[in-house]
Design brief:
The protein is of the alpha/beta class and 313 residues long. It folds into 2 domains: 185 residues, inorganic pyrophosphatase (n-terminal core), CATH 3.90.1640; 114 residues, Diaminopimelate Epimerase, Chain A, domain 1 (Roll), CATH 3.10.310.30. Helices cover 37% and strands 18% of the residues. It has 12 helices and 11 strands. Helix 2 packs parallel to helix 4.
């Protein structure tokens, strides 16, 4: 799984300003890779100006607030786009302004973009790719803070090393990251322990699960549901894994209604064994083979998508 990252190393050396982007509706791999890379760059190249961009965050754990920069700063920067399969999903549309763009990703490279493309579809997470790159840079250090960010992304994207794309290489990079003094037990608690509000939301979702013949599970949350739960749509979709530990469920999906157009829904799709990202691509989305997102679906499209998923069981 060794990638030729010479172009990345050379580009980092060439630019005084580096802007780091990731996808919209970010998960911990997007944010962990972004802040892991920003921290590593700041630790090893203190003379450079490093910026993390994007307006959205996650409520699964705490990440720093993104930077606010002008178009002129981006125009003079090296832009590194992480964990983003297609340009439309970047959570700041200004990356094309940069003098040079590097794409680092582990999704299928359906939409190549940027001047340098570093894609490894065998990697379980972008944090795994960055971990391998940092390991190769014997001239640089990996700090505790950078290691924590990487570990959070790796742990969550593999569902605690349970996904089918988790390999011995994934574990080896996880071991390398962990060797830098992180508190593994504390990170697990921070990421996966629930407060009482989250426990109540999870109970509500479990009570409203529907299935197709007991094999494909799904939950559809309306605006009224979201208001009742006092939760945003993106935060609600983070609870999709409440359906992920039932042996009979071959796939599970979560859909949330738009607040500005109640005819449309966004959704998250998950499975441990079924390929989903090609289906997601047909519904304004994409992602990993076993973890994908869709958006702007009406009720008929949801039914059609669920039928397509069931046909693969």
């Amino acid at each position: 799984m060794i990638m030729n990252c010479d172009a990345l190393s050379i580009s980092i050396e060439q630019f005084d300003t580096i802007t780091v982007f990731r996808h919209e509706h970010p998960d911990c791999d997007a944010l962990g890779s972004q802040w892991g890379l920003c921290t590593w760059l700041r630790d090893n190249f203190p003379e450079k100006k490093i910026y993390a961009l994007g307006s959205e965050t996650t409520d699964q754990t705490d990440f720093p607030k993104s930077d606010e920069v002008s178009d002129d700063i981006i125009r003079n920067s090296l832009a590194i786009v992480l964990d983003t399969g297609n340009a439309e999903r970047i959570d700041d549309k200004r990356s094309p302004l940069a003098r040079k763009v590097i794409k680092i990703d582990h999704h299928p490279n359906i939409e190549p973009f940027g001047d340098v493309i570093l894609v490894d579809t065998k990697a379980a997470a972008v944090c795994e790719i960055l971990g391998e790159y940092f390991l190769s840079r014997k001239d640089c250090k990996l700090s505790l803070m950078a290691a924590e960010y990487l570990y959070e992304g790796l742990l969550t994207d593999t569902l605690c090393y349970a996904t089918s794309n988790t390999t011995s290489h994934t574990l080896a990079i996880g071991s390398y990251i962990a060797s830098h003094g992180i508190n593994i037990a504390e990170i697990n608690r921070r990421l996966f322990d629930q407060d009482q509000k989250a426990f109540s939301i999870a109970s509500y979702i479990r009570a409203h699960i529907q299935t197709i013949n007991g094999r494909v599970a799904y939950c559809i949350l309306s605006c009224e549901d979201l208001k009742h739960l006092n939760i945003s749509a993106s935060s609600a979709r983070n609870f999709i894994n409440e359906m992920g530990h039932v042996k009979e469920f071959a796939a599970w999906c979560m859909f949330t209604q738009h607040t500005d157009n109640e005819k449309l829904y966004d959704g998250s799709l998950r499975s441990k064994t079924i390929c989903l990202n090609d289906l997601a691509a047909q519904y304004h989305g994409g992602g990993h083979p076993n973890a994908s997102g869709v958006k702007d679906l009406d009720e008929k499209m949801i039914d059609t998508l669920l039928d397509s998923i069931y046909s693969r069981v």
